[in-house]
Amino acid sequence: xxxxxxxxxxxxxCGESSRFALKAYDRPFYFCDNCELIFVPRHxxxxxxxxxxxxxxxxxxxxxxxxxxRFANLISQIKTHAPDVRRILDYGCGPGPVLVDLLRRAGxxxxxxxxxxxxxxxxxxxxxxxxxTETIEHFSRPGEEIRRICALIRPxxxxxxxxxxxxxxxxxxxWHYPRxxxxxxxxxxxxxxxxxxxxxxxxQFSDGRNTAGFRRTDG
Length: 219
Description:
With 219 residues, the chain is an alpha/beta fold. The protein has a single domain (46-216), classed as Rossmann fold. It has helices spanning 48-55, 65-81, 98-105, 142-150, 169-172, 189-198, and strands at 8-10, 17-24, 27-31, 38-39, 87-91, 109-113, 127-133, 153-162, 185-186, 201-206, 211-216. A six-stranded mixed sheet has the order 6-5-7-8-11-10, sandwiched between helices. Helix 2 (65-81) packs across helix 3. It is globular.
């Protein structure tokens, strides 16, 4: 990796020029003043093969009580904010689709998609809701990938995301989340507003920590 980061990089979410902010965990991080995305430049991301290998090491199973509890909270949010949805896609389900199983147990018709582990899922018909948990921080091209997700949601449908929200640059260097080399995009409160404006969504709620819900209002 270069020891002399460029002064500016293009934001992968909103396309604006973004300034070099800091170096931490042996990686340079850039900050977009427009949408407040903090990101690692694409040329420094792990290869798809290395990413898949790391994802396969995650212990995301039904036996992981903390992991399951987080999904129970998410399902509660779905019931509160989107009580009429029935057909749900877990986008980025990983090698062990725990959330898909929990959604089915809760009475939903659920499917999982993952570019590495479940790429053959039928995505031809729009879903009432898409959930993306611990996934969007891995997006190499956030704008393109979020746009693709939104196209999978029916008009009036919902998008629920779970990722750790950053609390600004002053706290970033001490934060655990950027330690993972597969984490390359970090979202703050203003980033969520930008996502809503850009992709025809309305921000329904955010807990300010790691969970947010949107409704598709275009179309």
